[in-house]
Input
Amino acid sequence: MEKKWNTFSIRKVKKVNYLKKTFFLMLFLLTFQLKISSENHQESSKLISLNFENEKLSTALKKLEKASEYRLIFNYEDVESYRVKGSFIRKNISDILDALFVDKPLVYSLQAQKKVIIITEKLRNTNKLKTVSGQVLDVNKSPLPGVNVLVVGISHKSLTDENGRYVIQIPENSNVTLFYSFVGMKSEKVRVKASFSGSQLNTVILQEDSKVIDEVVVTGYQTFSKKKLTSSVTSLKAEDIIIPSATSIDQMLEGQVPDLVSITNSGEIGVVPKIRIRGTSTLIGNREPLWVLDGVPLQDPISIDPEQLNDPDYINNIGNAIAGINPQDIERIDILKDASSTALYGAKAANGVIVITTKKGSIGKPVFTYNEYTTLRIRPRYSDSSINLMNSHERVDFSRYLAQNHYVFPSSINYVGYEGALNQYYSKQISYSEFSTQVNKFETANTDWFDLLTEDSFSAQHTLSVSGGSDKVRYYASLGLTSDKDVVKWNKNNRYSMAINVDVKLSDKSNISFKVNGNSSERNYYQSSIDPINYAYNTSRAIPAYEDNDYYYYQKHSGSYTYNYNVLNELNNSSYNQKGSAFSFQANLNYNPLNFLRLSSIISYSLSNTNIDSEWGEKSYYIATKRKSNYGVEPGSDSECPAGGELTQTNSQNRNYMGRFQADFNKDLGENLQHNISITMGLEGSSSHYNTTSNTDRGYFPDRGLQFATYPTGIYTNYDKWLVAQKPSITDNISNLISGYFSISYSYMNRLNLNWNARYDGSNKFGNLSNDKMLPVWSASTSYNFADHLKKHTDIFDVFLCKFSYGYQGNMLDGQSPVTIIKKKPIDTYYNEMYSVISTYPNPDLKWERTQSINTGLDISMFKGRIGLSTEFYYKYTKDAFMSKQISGVNGLSSYTVNGGKIINKGYDVTLSVVPVQNKNWRWNLSTSISKYFNKIETTPSGDQYSLDNFLSGTAVVKGQPVSTFYSYKFLGLSPTNGEAVFDDYTDYPERLFSKTKYEVFTSVLTPSGRREPKITGSLNTNLRYKNIRLSGNFYYSLGAKIRLFRLFNGTSTFLPEYNISKDLLKRWQYPGDEKYTNIPAASNEFMSSMHWSGFTNGKVPEIAYYKYDMYNYSDIRVVSADYLKCNNLSLSYLFPEKLIRKINLSRCELSVSGSNLFTLCSSKLKGQTPQQTGFASIQLSNRPSYSLGVNIQF
Amino acid sequence: MKYKYLLGLICILFSSCNDFLTEYSQDQAYVTSYNDLDELLIGNAYMKHYITQDYQSSNTQSYYPYIHFMDDELIQNGTGEYSFTRIPEFLFGYYTWQREVSKDPNGDSQWPESQDWNNLYSYIGASNMILSLIDKQSVATTNDSINVKRIKGEAYFLRGSYYFTLVNLYGLPYSTKTADTDPGVPIKLTESIEDKYFSRNTVKDVYDQIIQDLLNSVNYLKDVPHKSWHRADYPSACLMLSRVYLYKQDYANALKYAQLVIDKKPTLVNLNTFAGKQFLSADNSELLFSTGTSQLPANLGTYTGGFSVSPDLYHKYNSNDLRTTYFVKDTLGRILDVKQTPLEQGLYDYYDISDHFVLRVSEAYLNLAEAAAITGKDELALNALNILLQNRIRTDKFTPLKEITGAELVQYVRDERCRELCLEGHRWFDLRRYKVNDLYPYKVTIEHDYTSWSSQGWSYFANPTRRYTLTSDDPAWVLSIPKSEIIYNEGMIDNQRNARSYKIVDLAY
Output
């Protein structure tokens, strides 16, 4: 057999040579070498030097414990009467103990694996044994099978059965100690005195060893002790951050992680927050972090263009990679922030990594947990302080004022409300009394748009899970149902999810685990162009919604035509439904052939389907504009949709698979095992396939068997043209990646740690430069724990860790190539030949976008974890950032991508956590963190690259300014003669702007108003427990961001009859002298419609502004601070006493009440506008206050 | 033994590696054969054929339509029933030779002035790329080498022709005295992007480059089969070359290459027996090559406010000339372009043949006649003219030309050129070069009347008509370099155009 094995292995090695893959060879050579070195290995332990001069044995043992790496367990009664002396130099702990106990009736047992030494009295010589029995339970009072029960001092051992019961024989006339130990649990010891005569021992309850979770860091590739941490990682327990009103874990991260900023522009359900970890270090590339679930990087269900994702006004309600994961299934979250912690993920981790670890089964009888939250969301109301709008009386008064002052409306307005009645009266369609009646009706209408379009809503989340298992097999399974209803009546999300995790121990050396996740979701939204919240804000309350039991329609212009419009009709006759389903499977196989070598592999497969049906019904205004007639009226001859509605279907499929093979080598070396070397190396292959088809069709009749009407060609020529132009579109994208990674760490005495990581990727990306040039992703880091040194002086420090890391990351843009890339097109009907077009011009000089980063930090833990302080500083310098550069048209194209940008990101954070009170009844945790962040661009973009709108919205890149800096007009005051706003806009000396580029003109005429992202963010978390009552709160603050007030003037059409108007305009300039008290301009035609001078310079000066009112909306006086303090969540929970619930067979029952978004403190200048709403494009739903009731039951 | 499985796993992983990392894209590809380059010619080097007919201000789908509006071939319709049209606003700047051609009378930008510059340079860029990649493609068979020659010939033809258009739009006409100092357009022959400030090469440099490209084209295309009239062939290249030599006043070569065209393809359409639906169509037997779009016919009309063919042009034809039936036609008192319009209205509203870049055999006769007339080879000139006229004048009224000589003959050829090649984008360039002709300079002054209309409710009224004049020595015979290029390319010289005054004229409405 021995011989056979040898030949086999030699043959294999030969085969390896043929493969000629360097990495592979390295891996095997290493395993081979390790095998040799292991044979010389012998178990030995740390050497200790101590000196005792007639000391109490108990003191001596304590000293010995401190000097050694063992925990000494003993009873004071056993040792208190002895004194010891002796001097030991570089001795093993067992030698010392032997010497100390030489003349004493004490024995010890050493458990090397657990680093525990138990000291007991020597059993008196007796052969008499007696049998005792007992039971071991966990904290949930569930029996624990497989617990080791040991009689200390003799070799009697026993295991608990499936009911947690055990039987063991103990000496009859001695004091004995029973020792209970179990993986993942804190060990317990129970002393049985010689006087004990019964046979039934007390029940023993083992506590979970929470240190196991608290003191490690999970990166997805490695798990290691926090004490050895050299990089920047924040670890969270999911249960600590659960917010009942949120349905996805990403919505719960705000305020929980230093250096992580989460931005949500809309308070609607299912909106994905934008997450930025340590700022923005790319100008054109993706800025979102990478999500990793149990070691496997996740893909979004639908791939969205980075440019769109980076747009600060974009609202993503399609959902991201983790939207399908039930937060209740999540155990922990690790956020990897610096280059060193993310290096093993390669280039795609440039924006940080969020590692999610799901729950696993725990050994014991099956425990069922049912968790339920009911959430009440509160809709917006006109009475909210945030809504500063006129009521219908004020609005009609305003219209009257405009009419009296001969305000001229644009030519094609929608005649409705007061203006509608006036128009009818002037054109003699109605009498004065009819006019008065109508106006009276409008004045008293006070239509409550918020009531019509929104409602207080109830949502519910249910999770039922079961967890249990034995020493061999452990399992966790859960079912989740989430029914999320928004305050906007047409929005609803449902999600059904399930998860199964099974861990199987195959042998002492190997185990395998399986994981299955599945979810199905349905998201219903309104058609985004209707925008009900924006409508409620902007629509006059004088316009009724209903009339004579039917909708009240007004005539809305579409070009030169008008059609009936009512927002409720529009919403009820259109829909946007997204159905998604996802399934993933994962298997992990671990094998420890030697105690210092671990081989592991992961295989995973996931599949997700997303179908979006976007529908417009035939009764909608949208279809009327296509049909060219109102509903029920013959379609116009120029109709583009003669019958039925319109349906757009988009189906996306994403399939991923991944395989990983990894070898971990971890070994203590040296005489005293003071050196530890750990090496991780692995190979990984992954493939992601996106497939999307999209098609739009008209003539749709959903209520007539989901069918489409057909028309012979020639009747409606516009429809025919539309049909011809309408083609389904298909996209198909496969990205494959093969990577090798390597990590080596050295640790000296657990104090000094050194680490080096590197990774190499190869991909199938078409024409990608990264395939041709070596990817520079590597990092080096170190840390030193001073706690051991400090122990000589003081006892208070558990950890005093200084760390430093340096990393180098590269990033490459898709669609750039050193050679020409063409796109093959189908036949050209004019030339009657197949043709191709150039899709990528060669860009051979393009280099990697390179980011160098430094992270340095200090972690201090004092008083056995009662006080924790950590602080970090980082500096990221991105050079050769990709920028689009304008070039001469002589090249045949107008711009191309260059490595031009330089961006600096730096910041620091401080986190303090304190446990001021901790005793049997009370426990109070308090933690606070503050992060400050600076960002600067050090590149001047080319002169004409950014337009006026880019400057006003903060998407222009300006040298010396942070990313997202937005610009405003300089407001000087109101004119005393006519109340117009006056600006510092070079009106009197336009020649100073002649022959300057757009960049120069805009940066001199406009003034930077600040950035849209905050400079400082921070949070305060508090958790107070008194017996069974727990109160916790999470507060978040954000400082340094600036925000524009909602537009006061809505285009030239500000005062259109159907629009509501801000109450601010009641304080407008009306008479000379008012300018001293107000900065709201007069509502005059002159102001509203006068064009800016820069439009008349024959192009000598680029247009600086279009209209004066625009300048007012975007002027610096309309910019206010967006600083705020928000109460994210407050919750109160009560855990029922066991006695009470035992009767109904429950092992745990907890009730909780919580509130989210309860209040926000912010600048009064915001006039109640919510500071979180940094979007400039349109008014979005603010984060709604919500109240939740939760139940958590275990049985 | 467990190593065995492990090894097996890794082996599988690696053996599938090569396939796994094969680059994949739905529709993108590298250039792997000359066929790809042949397809690129259609996609990026030949001009597009746009279906859109109307000129639109934001329209990126047209090729220098103003070339027809700057010369004396078109006028704005005066008296009559007004019909709203924006065409005069769009093309106002060109039609009245303003300093800023893209602006309407109110100073609003109406026309993307850099569009043609950018388009032509992007086609040149594609030609450069094709020429640089073609020699890297594998050639195995004779057929392969023929195709490679054809692709090279077409790419050289296109590059030369586009530079010819560019230098005539943005540079002074070729004057034998000043061509080596007059600024032309920048020449770029490399395929890679050059992120630098370009400066203008001299007119002579540009012409030398054009001739070199076209000579290459002639060489490569000489004995290769022709794919279709959409693509350049040997006669097209020769004809283009003869045109360029004529512009350069190199009459010997102009004559030589015109003769080569006629030797190869002498066919002319005889209008006396013409039975087609329209003159300029794919069926026309004298058509050699066409690329681009035809929009002019659709934008001319009889209504007031719009444009039609100038009576001056119409009066150049005599009553026996059949071209007044097939080229320009009196319709309700206005002259319309019927060269490409179906003779039976309503049959067809799709124009195949370009209105700005078309090569026909008749031009070869005219080039030959002009070169011969100027160099005193009167017989040769008259002979060529007679062959053409035979096919254009009613047979019963046709008498061959004779005994015309010297300046009179040159003028006759030039007028004949105007009659024959009208509305095909020749006239503006021809008028430019006649000005600087060494032997027979011809100075012309053009007047354009422009009327704008204002609305009052649903009715329109005419504003006073303005008359603009372009004299022979006016700087506006050259377009300004697009502003974006002047701003970008520091130091590039612009063509200084003058502000233009007008006088109000009283037209009876």
